[in-house]
Input
Amino acid sequence: MKIAIVGGGPGGLYLAALTKHLDPAHEITVWERNAPDDTFGFGVVFSDETLGGIENADTVFSEAMASRFARWTDIDIHFRGHTHTVGGQGFAAMSRKDLLHLLQERCHDLGVTTHFSTPAPDDLRGSHDLVVGADGLNSSIRAAHADVFRPTLDRRRSKYMWLGTDLVFEAFQFFIKQTTWGTVQVHAYPYSDTGSTFIVEMHEDVWRRAGFHDTALPPGASDEHAIDRIRELFADELAGHRLYANNSKWLNFTTVRNERWRHDNLVLVGDAAHTAHFSIGSGTKLAMEDSLALAACLHEHPDIESALSAYEAERRPVVESTQRAAQASLEWFENIGMYVHQEPTQFCFNLLTRSRRITYTNLRTRDAEFADRVDSAFAADQGFGEVAPAMFQPFRLGQLELKNRIIVSAMDMYSAEEGVPGDFHLVHLGSKAMGGAGLVMTEMVCVSPEGRITPGCTGLWTDEQRESWARIVSFVHERGSARIGLQLGHSGRKGSTRLMWEGMDDPLPQGNWAIVGPSPLPYGPGSAVPRELTRADMDRILADFVEAARRGADAGFDLLELHCAHGYLLSSFLSPIANRRTDTYGGSLENRLRFPLEVFDAVRAVWPAERPMIVRISATDWVPDGNTEHDAVEIARAFIAHGADAIDVSSGQVTKDERPAYGRSYQTPFADRIRHEVAASAGAAVIAVGAIASYDDVNSILLAGRADLCALGRTHLYDPQWTLHAAAEQEYRGPAAEWPLPFQAGKRKPPTARTDAVRPRLSLLQDGDSDPQVHVRWKPQALR
Output
């Protein structure tokens, strides 16, 4: 093939070298607008996984790289005058300039044609079989075909500057410095035996308060004024060593995403296709991984179309996962000022787990001593003498004692008859209560027939319904130590729809009832148009909530949650997407809060004072012009001021037009913000919910201080005894995970099929070495 590569950075050069190495018959030309000695930045970082791929692809180049590496296994976090060291990491770095020189030499040796200081011609697509856009963040290839690639460029709110120092660090360094202007952090790491990268970052508000004003710099010039200020600010950390620039200036990180990476014989790699914040990994690493995958696909597939299709199919899920983690890390550092009040060990754990890729278990594997310190610090901070997995530390919610911090989240079952919960609900909720969770929530229990989502929804508008709920509550109380909570709500504009498995959110084909909302706006295409509520309607609905709450109290529920999320009636009042009223119940957030707060106050007045009342909210609408996490903070603040004992932080489902950023624990950052900005200081709890699937996730969330409790739904559908099994897996046998007496015989994990395997003789493994450490590998848990 005749291949044109636009961009002579690491991604473009590595692709050229690999492709030529795999098939010398390819005619490959690289165009680079900069000179061969021009480079930006200092060091680039690689993980062991990436280096393994490079080694397998081209041993000659891999060996040349290895000779230049600086390696480390520790991370040092400098915070409040102390250094906290965490080991077991395993990274390598090298000079970016050295990397480019090695790649240039490799391309030259393989016969790749390179043109430096030369812009690429405009007509490459017609004269080449394949054109690769490897021209970085400001890609001209991407810009010229923006209608096809459909890029989005997300410019972030922190300022950073990439600098270097002749101080050679022994490990990765995080310097967290409190200044009169706010928090400033440094990410630093060694890249050779003569220097280290030194990246200074701060929120733009801090940057402005500190007086780092933009200046009109000529192209290629460094901001020497700012660098002099940084030298002074980090004089102690630099200990007399030089701090120097390389085309260094203040930048705002831009996250690049493209809907497509390929078009006919044109394809994007590296920063032209995607970017990921430097706090989680090197853009160079991702670019070289792209090039490795693309070279392999070109070699393995018979034509350009199938090769590029395979490349994007292979790389996009990996890149998107990396970008989700990078976004979480980026936002953590943008909001670092929220966390500097934390106890130092918790702060360090929070920093290390910020991306949600590294978890408590990962850290324990890498550095068990640090994990022990995290456990002890959490127990001490919570006032407990006994160290236990965080999820099994008890929690007091208002005056309600919960044996552990696991909640079975509210899940609609659509299985009631005329609003009456039956044997299905007894088995469903009873089994979850016997499964070890501290609190079990009902589905949304509707306050009136017109407030149902579907004909199968439960209610509390009759005494018959109350008595049936009382039977379920009594079973939960009699059969264990779990508590049971009532979620109370009204469907609003999302009512009169089919059962979920018959067509979620689709209107009933017959037997419909009139639906209402704050404004006559349908939930989505095909949805019925609600009638706009009058003040008289609102009074009737408020009275329905009050009567349902009274019945719930009589039924014996331990807790009440007011459902103000997911686009149901109270949620739709809160959202500007659903609420377009022009009276005192619409417009500003203060006005949109008015009716939900009226309902909360009326319910709180009749709900027993000794029983907690909490609120579930949607922290973001996931659409432009909808509520954001900043609105959620104010919504939470208002409910807490009115007496809410906790905020249950969900998101979305307010409109069918939403575009959620799904991923593991994807809603937790909203809970984190509410907890640190409002709830903790007000004495209210925060519940995290949403794609929390493992006990490792739960422990990581709690230990980092992102939430006080975790609610899991689908996980408990998969395994009703999930909490008890999590205790067994963690070898926890305390009172927070007590098995029901009839189930006691099953509290140990069943043996695997390989427990009868014959153990190899130690003499065959160690040539007679009798080192007792050898026996560690045969511990039973190592076989799992």
The chain is about 35% helix and 20% strand. The radius of gyration is 29 Å. Residues 304-334 form the longest helix (31 residues).
